Amino acid sequence: MKEILDAILSSDSTAADFAAIKLPESYRAVTLHKDEEQMFAGLDSRDKDPRTSLHLDDVALPELGPGEALVAVMASAVNYNTVWSSIYEPVSTFGFLERYGRLSPLTKRHDLPYHVLGSDLAGVVLRTGAGVNAWKPGDEVVAHCLSVELESSDGHNDTMMDPEQRIWGFETNFGGLAQIALVKTNQLMPKPAHLTWEEAASPGLVNSTAYRQLVSRNGAGMKQGDNVLIWGASGGLGSYATQYALAGGATPICVVSNDQKAEICRSMGAEAIIDRSAEGYRFWKDENTQDPREWKRLGGRIRELTGGEDVDIVFEHPGRETFGASVYVTRKGGTIVTCASTSGFMHQYDNRYLWMSLKKIVGSHFANYREAWEANRLVAKGKIHPTLSKVYTLDETGQAALDVHQNKHQGKVGVLCLAPSEGLGVRDHELREKHLPAINRFRDI
Fold it and tell me: pLDDT tens digits, the chain, 445 residues: what are they?
């Protein structure tokens, strides 16, 4: 592993140098253990501690297949799917690995008694499999997390529709929270040259998800002038939605939970901000009963901020806690686009406000390759910026996941894998200097 790192840190290593490195038989990785699937049985979600379920193990280097690459991971990041995996909710991810393993002799590699997690990476290509022409050893890359087989016609207009579509590092093995990762080469994209390894690793999943959900025609198809309600507007996902709304000529109405998060949104350029804690919104009277008066109060507050207009789009991801309110406050003919359910998967809403006002609910899940590429291109051009707030080492991943689980984080939480320290990997210093305040926005809070 030292030889790999030395080659990456050297300024004159060539593709031939990387190709000549003898790969190790094993590497360090953050894993779940299949024999611990029931370790949290009977506990409430909030009481489940990722620090006890996530392990740092030596694991065997997987066999490289056609159309695949082994990547030396300099940095990765924690997403909500890492948290869900670590607390075995809503299901154990080992069921995903078992089903994938039945697909072919090659996918059988993924069905193991351990699961290497992680759906983000920035690093360097070490090896490519048969049939790969676009990438070579030594290429500096980031990876999006769409793993797709594309053997069915269903996926050829939109790869997210492929029946064998999966999220790498969540529904597949050999993810990015490790020193080495196995990816399909159509997951690879050029690393933004003005970013450090940890900064480049942090946008992937959430940036692509926000792009499809808000900008793409497969999502809400946001246009100039739209009012966009963004829940958790300073968080890992919402912070990208806020940037896209501002960059695209829309007006974000940013919902946050404290003044510190409100200040982050203001620093991005947002002006319409709702601090839901300070304003005391309680959308549920009790566990089973929502309070429509609170929906109406939220709608009235939105109109105060927009000059009397309702929102065209609601950027939904909390789920159960907020969904009834989201449906209510959307304008006639507007769109509620949802990509997750971090507060609960069973949504309830009053259908009268949907059907009689011709509103649409759109489900959005990650992004296809083109959408991910476009989202990464905007980062590489300095149009959209990483929202990295804190960085942990690989052996501290459990604590990083706990921070996300308990919503103690801002933006994204990064993880150093092979990178020995923060601040490495910048190639375009001029572009970086131009955007440094925006790059560091979440680090300076």
Answer: 999 999 999 989 999 999 999 999 999 999 999 999 999 999 999 999 999 999 999 999 999 999 999 999 999 999 999 999 999 999 999 999 999 999 999 999 999 999 999 999 999 999 999 999 999 999 999 999 999 999 999 999 999 999 999 999 999 999 999 999 999 999 999 999 999 999 999 999 999 999 999 999 999 999 999 999 999 999 889 999 999 999 999 999 999 999 999 999 999 999 999 999 999 999 999 999 999 999 999 999 999 999 999 999 999 999 999 999 999 999 999 999 999 888 888 999 999 999 999 999 999 999 999 999 999 999 999 999 999 999 999 999 999 999 999 988 888 999 999 999 999 999 999 999 999 999 999 986 6
Tokens of 324: 């009834």
Query: Which burial class, exposed, middle or buried, applies to 199 when counting CB atoms under 10 A from its CB (0-12, 13-18, 19+)?
Result: buried
Question: How far, CA to CA in Å, does 427 sit from each of 128, 179, 188, 383, 430?
Answer: 24, 22, 18, 18, 9
Rounded to 5°, angle at Cα 52 from 48 and 58: 140
Neighbours of 433 (CB within 10 A): 10
**pTM of this structure:** 0.94
Helices 238-247, 259-268: inter-axial angle, 10-degree rounding: 30
Contact 199, 206 (CB under 8 A): no
337/159 Cα distance (integer angstroms): 19
